[in-house]
Design brief:
Layout lengths: L1 H33 L1 H47 L2 H15 L2
């Protein structure tokens, strides 16, 4: 029977918490309606700040992608040089000499 009491207690706390969140939301909307110019100005400033942050993140991502592109290009070039027939022949000859074959 104690479980039922705990569940209803948890449900009661959850209900009170939801009521409190709803009340805070109503207060915020009321404050926004009371001073629409100020609230709108704050929202615009917050959005401008967020756009600036997103632009900085995007620039960082572009730089990172560019650096990775350059690294991969250099790696591919090195692999292509090592797999040219003349280079493979030299590597096989060198290996044969080192192993005494």
């Amino acid at each position: 029977m104690a479980r039922l009491g705990n569940r209803s207690g948890a449900d009661g706390r959850r209900t009170r918490l939801l009521d409190r969140v709803a009340q805070l939301g109503r207060r915020r909307r009321a404050a926004d309606l009371a001073a629409p110019g100020d609230a709108q100005e704050r929202r615009i400033e917050a959005l401008e700040e967020r756009v600036d942050q997103l632009e900085a993140l995007l620039e960082g991502l572009q730089d990172s992608v560019h650096r990775e592109f350059i690294r991969e290009g250099e790696r591919i070039d090195a692999l292509e040089r090592r797999t040219e027939p003349a280079e493979i022949s030299r590597a096989l000859s060198r290996d044969a000499r080192e192993r005494g074959i």
